[in-house]
């Protein structure tokens, strides 16, 4: 665990909260037609020479959903997106959109439009010409083109810049134009390839929310690709965590965060403490684990089971760990350690605690008390504890 | 200091020679050394400047000059267009090929110019002449029963100019095309443009600076080309470079030769000005 992990962590709770709030209305539209998925990706694979970029992925996406493919570079998320756009041909598998197989349809005829990472605005054309380009290809009558272009530019608040060329626009403005250029075609599916990567950090947060608002207003189905978990959680109603061409976990942001299904998922999203151990007791709906690094055993009391002696990991998020000076009166879920580092972040502090075994554990505590003396300090012996509901047992 | 070096170069090798030629073009021919009259004389405390427009007016009296200019411009224009038609696909293919093959292909474009220009043009005589390579091959294949007359025709001149100047078209085009962002074409496909439409609406407009640079590099030297028409076009081909040569060396009429050169420069300055205008507009 390093301090950069902590920077990632900070805005997390706020955003998670925000996401659950904004997603409510979306879920309604997404659930409107539950009978069949709008987009079906069936067993799709892509190999380059001997390298398997995408390895038999299955996905179903509902109409109006904003779906994020999340993974580090080289995990196959961009290749999957390019296959949807038709820019790469799948080695195996099918892509079905609104009941239509896309295999034989070339990219210029697909009802899918993509916003490129670099935005790929045509540098020799004005904003207006860029947005009109797609409609011209569809032979839309001239007066209708003009009307639609202005309408879409208004939607993205770029109507004042129609005559500008792309090099005369800021990064955020370019993104809006790129968005207008694909929205104007009213595609059935919108693909966003790292939509915020070309923007500076300050602008990102603001644009993430704005982009989601526009997409929700239009009601377009959208698949985005990102390596930034914060971005995925802010924007998407569902996330697929990808690694080495496979999908590791699919679910709403809060589910992926609270109930990771694997070590990879747990570590990729947010900060996590992982404790290795063996199952010691398996009671109905409860599991007791003997952890290698902890003073007490771990008890997990929600929907888990396993065979005795099985090697497992337990994931505990830093905000779920309680830091105290007194020994907890529970028999489970606690350990002793020494405060190695404290990072004060205003609303809360992050404690880096070294256990006797040498393992480092990260815990965040809300700063409820105002004076510094009431909180544990450097090199102090403290106790870490958590509730039986807080841990998640991982077997892979 | 760094700016001064190209400036000094321009003054020494462009401006001063230009001024000398300009000066001679206003003089009169005399049989002396040098073979032209002085522009100014200082005698009895009076400075006499004699500017003669006769040389320029003379160019209008004989339609030989006008025909020679027209022919040169036409020949240069057609050669330039042919170079563009042949050079663009080549430059495009090179720019699109893998980095390892790319350098070999580029070398292939440049390699011929490592041999003497004159020898390469002589080689074309061997290929094009009546009992040359092409005619012998066609006769042997039985496609023709009489040799085609190719040498000493305009066609031979076109072949020679296009052959010699093609690299000057390919290289600036390649430099431009290799920088193109391929995602722009992908974006065009994605927005519904068929590949050929993407080429017409994206690739060609974006390569315009390269097209213009290549066209200028072919057109300008082709107008004044002397060696190729002389060797491949035979004695009948009337081109301004040849007229210039004849005025200068055969007639020893330096003032008229200078006037011919000045008018030619005027013709060439025009497209250059257009080019410059376009470039400064691009920079905006």
Mean pLDDT of chain B: 90
Major β-sheet annotation of chain A: 6 strands, mixed
Cα Rg of chain A = 24 Å
Oligomeric state of the chains present here:
heterodimer
Can I get a quick summary?
The complex is a heterodimer of chains A (396) and B (284). Chain A is an alpha+beta fold and 396 residues long. Helices cover 28% and strands 31% of the residues of chain A.
Provide the descriptors you would attach to this structure in a database record.
heterodimer, A: about 400 residues, alpha+beta, six-stranded mixed sheet, five-stranded antiparallel sheet, 20 strands, elongated, disordered N terminus, B: about 280 residues, mainly alpha, two-stranded antiparallel ribbon, 13 helices, 2 strands, about 5% strand, globular
Task: Report on the architecture of this protein.
The complex is a heterodimer of chains A (396) and B (284). Chain A is an alpha+beta fold. Chain A is built from 10 helices and 20 strands. In chain A, the strands form 4 sheets. Chain A has a 6-stranded mixed β-sheet, sandwiched between helices. In chain A, strands 13-12-11-14-20 form a 5-stranded antiparallel β-sheet. A 5-stranded antiparallel β-sheet of chain A has the order 15-19-16-17-18, with no helix packed on it. In chain A, helix 7 links the parallel strand 7 and strand 8 (221-226). Mean pLDDT of chain A is 86; it is low at 1-33. Chain B is mainly α and 284 residues long. Chain B has a two-stranded antiparallel sheet with strand order 1-2. The longest helix of chain B has 34 residues, at 63-96. Chain B is globular, with a radius of gyration of 24 Å. Chain B starts with a helix and ends with a helix. The model of chain B has no long low-confidence stretch (mean pLDDT 90). Chain A binds chain B through residues 85-87, 106-109, 112-114, 116, 118, 120, 122-124, 133-134, 137-138, 181-182, 185, and chain B through 181, 183-184, 186-195, 197, 201-202, 205-206.
């Amino acid at each position: 665990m390093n301090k950069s992990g902590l920077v990632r962590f900070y805005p997390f709770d706020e955003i998670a909260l925000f996401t659950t709030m904004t997603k409510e209305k979306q879920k309604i539209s997404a659930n409107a037609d539950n009978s069949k998925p709008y987009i079906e990706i069936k067993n799709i694979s892509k190999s380059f020479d001997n390298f398997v970029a995408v390895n038999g992925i299955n996905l179903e996406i509902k109409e109006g959903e904003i779906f994020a493919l999340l993974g580090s570079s080289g995990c196959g998320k961009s290749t999957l997106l390019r296959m949807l756009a038709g820019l790469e041909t799948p080695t195996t598998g099918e892509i079905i959109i609104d009941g239509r197989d896309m295999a034989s349809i070339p990219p210029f005829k697909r009802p899918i439009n993509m916003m490129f990472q670099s935005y790929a605005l045509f540098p020799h054309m004005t904003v207006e010409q860029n947005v009109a380009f797609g409609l011209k290809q569809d032979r839309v009558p001239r007066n209708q083109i003009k009307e639609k272009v202005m309408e879409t530019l208004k939607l993205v608040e770029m109507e004042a810049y129609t005559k500008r060329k792309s090099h005369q626009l800021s990064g955020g403005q370019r993104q809006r134009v790129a968005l207008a250029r694909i929205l104007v075609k009213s595609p059935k599916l919108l693909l966003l390839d790292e939509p915020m990567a070309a923007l500076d950090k300050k602008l990102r947060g603001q644009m993430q929310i704005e982009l989601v608002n526009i997409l929700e207003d239009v009601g377009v189905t959208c698949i985005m690709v990102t390596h930034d978990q914060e971005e995925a959680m802010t924007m998407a109603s569902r996330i697929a965590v990808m690694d080495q061409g496979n999908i590791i976990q699919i679910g709403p942001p809060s589910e992926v965060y609270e109930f990771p299904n694997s070590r990879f998922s747990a570590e990729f999203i947010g900060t996590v403490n992982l404790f290795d151990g063996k199952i010691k007791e398996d009671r109905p709906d409860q599991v007791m684990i003997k952890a290698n690094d902890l003073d007490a055993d771990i008890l997990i009391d929600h929907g888990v089971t396993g065979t005795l002696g099985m090697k497992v990991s337990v994931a505990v998020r830093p905000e779920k760990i309680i830091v105290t000076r007194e020994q907890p009166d529970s028999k489970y879920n606690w350990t002793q350690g020494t405060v190695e580092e404290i990072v004060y972040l205003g609303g809360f502090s992050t404690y880096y605690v070294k256990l006797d075994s040498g393992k480092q554990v990260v815990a965040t505590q809300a700063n409820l008390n105002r004076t510094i003396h009431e909180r544990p300090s450097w090199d102090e012996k403290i106790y870490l504890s958590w509730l039986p509901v807080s841990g998640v047992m991982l077997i892979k | 200091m760094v700016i001064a070096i190209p400036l000094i170069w321009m003054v020494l090798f462009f401006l001063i020679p230009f001024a000398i030629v300009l000066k001679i073009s206003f003089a009169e021919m005399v049989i002396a050394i040098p073979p032209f009259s002085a522009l100014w004389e200082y005698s009895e405390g009076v400075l006499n400047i004699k500017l003669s427009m006769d040389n320029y007016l003379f160019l209008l009296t004989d339609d030989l000059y006008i025909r020679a200019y027209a022919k040169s411009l036409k020949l240069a224009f057609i050669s330039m267009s042919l170079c563009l038609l042949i050079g663009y696909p080549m430059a495009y293919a090179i720019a699109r090929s893998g980095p390892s093959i790319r350098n070999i292909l580029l070398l292939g474009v440049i390699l011929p110019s490592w041999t003497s220009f004159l020898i390469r043009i002589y080689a074309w005589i061997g290929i094009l002449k009546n009992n040359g390579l092409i005619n012998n091959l066609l006769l042997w294949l039985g496609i023709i029963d009489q040799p085609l007359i190719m040498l000493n025709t305009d066609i031979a001149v076109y072949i020679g100019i296009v052959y010699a100047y093609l690299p000057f078209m390919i290289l600036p085009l390649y430099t431009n095309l290799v920088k193109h962002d391929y995602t722009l074409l992908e974006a065009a496909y994605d927005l519904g443009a068929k590949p050929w439409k993407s080429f017409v609406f994206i690739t060609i407009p974006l390569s315009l600076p390269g097209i213009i640079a290549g066209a200028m590099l072919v057109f300008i030297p082709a107008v004044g080309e002397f060696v190729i028409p002389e060797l491949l076009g035979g004695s009948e081909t009337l081109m301004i470079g040849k007229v210039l040569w004849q005025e200068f060396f055969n007639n020893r009429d330096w003032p008229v030769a200078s006037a011919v050169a000045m008018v030619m420069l005027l013709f060439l300055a025009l497209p250059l000005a257009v080019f410059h205008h376009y470039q400064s507009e691009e920079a905006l």
